[in-house]
Amino acid sequence: MTAENGKRATRPCPCGYLGHYANRCRCTPDQVLRYRWKISGPLLDRIDVQLEVPAVEPEALARGADGEASAAIRERVTLARARQVARQQKTNARLTTKEVDEHCTPDAEGAILLGKAIARLGLSARAYHRVLKVARSIADIEGSERVRSTHVAEAIRYRTLDRAMRA
């Protein structure tokens, strides 16, 4: 696991090649599971966004990016941060538990969805509040005043290590 600017990354398996486009990984499923179980629950709870990012084939790198321009993304994120500060005088990441309850409450459908995810994934109270903060941030990026079930669903999808650990 490495840390840079508060971001954490870990390899997907002991050799680091699980999911590689050239099928370079030779780890057994049992080795992968044991490796992932080394990441403690309390540490995992503190990681808001947990995504597996696959290796990119050299041909795809040569073709260049297909996605949205960084400037457009930066503008949306800047506007979202401004919404957060205007609403609560700080960013969502800095909210206390009480403030999460005040500013990040999802709609009824989102609350039901989050309840099911907590039960199925065995999420802790800390993870619950972190999912709500991420959902609130997704809503802010979209310019939505309310945290909807779609925002909660996306935030839950960003907890891939939680799902992998409990599979």
**How are helices and strands ordered from N to C?**
EEHHHHHHHHH
Query: Which oligomeric form is depicted?
Result: single chain
Calculate Rg over CA atoms.
18 Å
Distance between the termini: 21 Å
Helix content: 55-70%
Shape: globular
The total beta strand count reads 2
Largest sheet: 2 strands, antiparallel
Number of helices: 9
The low-confidence runs, each spanning 5 or more residues with pLDDT under 50, are: 1-7
Mean pLDDT: 85
User: Which class do the helix and strand fractions yield?
Assistant: mainly alpha
Strand adjacency order, main sheet: 1-2
- Percentage of β-strand residues: under 5%
Question: Summed up, what is this model?
Answer:
With 167 residues, this protein is mostly helical.
Overall description:
This protein is mainly alpha-helical and 167 residues long. It has nine helices and two strands; from the N terminus they run E-E-H-H-H-H-H-H-H-H-H. The N terminus is likely disordered.
Overview features:
9 helices, two-stranded antiparallel ribbon, about 170 residues, globular, mainly alpha, about 55% helix, disordered N terminus
